[in-house]
Amino acid sequence: MSFEIFKIIEDQALVGFTGKINLQVKSNSAHVGSIYFLDGKIINAALSEMDSYKSFINLCIESNVNKNIKFVVEPELLTLINKKIDIPFSVLKKKILSVYDEYIKAKKNKPPMNLKILTKTKFLNSNEEVTAQEFKLLCSLSDYSSVKDIYTYSDLLEYEITNTLMSLRKKNAIKLIQVSKE
């Protein structure tokens, strides 16, 4: 499988680029997200309010799935203060390639963003075993109850959140409810 964004990133690394790659919607140039470079190394990524690592993974995968994305390379003055990612591109690339199929499968089961998630008290009082990912997600639910917030602020990657939500629903641990529109 060929990711166009990988070629662009490799080209920027080769020339020691400092600046950013903006991902934009082709039809109207709306900003989707950005990947930041300092001397040819990825130092940050921005997508919504997600952390840098999650933003980078999601931007690369989304740019491969959504063919309506264009890339705009833009020089910009950056410093080490902007550095939030300290992982070599080769490692990030392997991670993306290893989870790509999981993302595609999980995307079909992703719940609508306007739902709220409630943890069932009965489950919390039970002795039901939970995985590490389920525990992380249940902890996130103490801070955030909307599906949108969980996908934005949880430490888990998007496909991990979707699969974990499905697992917790099978265990009857959570309930998804529609938020009334006012």
Structure keywords:
four-stranded antiparallel beta sheet; alpha+beta
Mean of all residue-level pLDDT scores: 93
Spatial order of the strands forming the largest sheet: 3-2-1-4
Which structural class is indicated by helix and strand composition?
alpha+beta
Low-confidence stretches: none
Instruction: Estimate the global geometry from the Cα principal axes.
Output: elongated
Helical content (DSSP H or I, runs of 4+): 40-55%
Distance linking N and C termini: 45 Å
Number of helices: 7
**What proportion of the residues form beta strands (DSSP E)?**
15-25%
Overall radius of gyration: 18 Å
User: What's the SSE pattern?
Assistant: HEEEHEHEHHHHE
Describe the largest sheet: 4 strands, antiparallel
| E-strand count | 6
Describe the structure.
This protein has 182 residues and is an alpha+beta fold. It has seven helices and six strands; from the N terminus they run αβββαβαβααααβ. The protein has helices spanning 4-14, 52-65, 89-107, 121-124, 132-141, 147-153, 158-170, and strands at residues 19-25, 31-38, 41-46, 69-75, 115-119, 174-178. The strands form two sheets. A four-stranded antiparallel sheet has the order 3-2-1-4, covered by helices on one side. Strands 5-6 form a two-stranded antiparallel ribbon. Helix 2 crosses helix 3 and helix 3 (89-107) crosses helix 7 (158-170).
